[in-house]
Amino acid sequence: MKADHFEQQKLLDLAAEDVALTQLTHRARTLPEVAAVAAAEEAERTFSADVVRAETEVRDLGREVKRLESDVETVRAREDKDQRLLDSGTVAPKEMTNLQHELESLKRRQSDLEDQELELMERLEVAEKALAAAQQGLDRAREDRERAEQQRDDALADIADQTARHEAARAEVAGGLSQPLLTLYDRIRTQTGTTGAALLKARSCQGCRIEFYGSQLAAVRTADPHEVVRCENCGRILVRTAESGL
Fold first, then answer.
1. Do residues 71 and 113 lie in contact, with contact meaning Cβ atoms separated by under 8 Å?
2. Per-residue pLDDT tens for 150-170?
3. Buried (b) or exposed (e) across 143-156, using 16+ Cβ within 10 A?
4. For the segment 60-80, what is each residue's pLDDT rounded down to a tens digit?
5. Between 233 and which of 59, 175, 185, 210 could a Cys-Cys bridge form, CB atoms 3.0 to 4.6 Å apart?
């Protein structure tokens, strides 16, 4: 296949745009900002679970405190009732003795309940502090996630902008190439996954970095300037210039 020597040199501009586009695609896949968002989301999930656990503990302890408060009030009411009966002087001696024993028992019961209530209230206070800390952590994690998402979106927008500019530049270069040469280049580019042409510099293919010797070098050296020469190693079109060392 033949193509104008100067037209072949335009393939280097096309290859440069393809390299830039490949790098942008790789950058989009490996953005540290994307990993930062994932880490921030995981931190937010962890703090959210902490908040749920702390809320559950606070709610359960609060319910237990209220139950004990109710029990204490019931005992106190019974104590007050018994004390009024004793103070009234209308009860028989035997009943009075029973009331006194019951009052002593109620006082012990009240003391036990109040001790339990105090312990639960202390635990509730600790749980409430843990809930407040978890909520603060969740708020910070949400802020971190939102900030990470903004940084990711900014980076992706920058990549999209650069990609659009390089695609436009590539289309402009491709528009100046003959269809057969462009078709060959694109087929090779698909095979290599990067570019379809490379500069031959100092007798080395800049695509695969293989240096030419002997018969290979002689074949390239004697080829017509308009002949489309390809690297026997990577298959790319070899673009010959004054730097080729031929």
1. yes
2. 999 999 999 999 999 999 999
3. ebbeebbebbeebe
4. 999 999 999 999 999 999 999
5. 210
pLDDT in tens, 83-119: 888 888 777 887 878 888 888 999 999 999 999 999 9
C-alpha–C-alpha distance, residues 12 and 195, integer Å? 9
What global pTM score does this model have? 0.70
Six token digits for residue 187: 């087929």
- pLDDT tens-digit series, residues 211-246: 988 888 888 888 999 999 999 999 999 999 989 887
Last residue in a domain, options 122, 156, 190? 156
Helix axes 93-175, 32-88, angle to 10 degrees: 170
Whether the Cβ atoms of residue 173 and residue 13 lie closer than 8 Å to each other: yes
For residues 114 and 202, state if they share a domain. Answer: no
Given a contact cutoff of 8 angstroms between Cβ atoms, the answer to whether 145 and 44 are in contact is: yes
Question: What sections of 4-92 are H helices per DSSP?
Answer: 5-29, 32-88
Range of 63's domain?
32-156
Place of tokens 């050296």: 221
Q: What is the DSSP letter of 91?
A: S
Q: Please choose, from the candidates 228, 114, 120, the residue with its C-alpha nearest in 3D space to the C-alpha of residue 177.
A: 228
Query: Token match 């570019």: residue?
Result: 195
Name the CA dihedral angle for 126, 130, 133, 135, rounded to a multiple of 10 degrees. -130
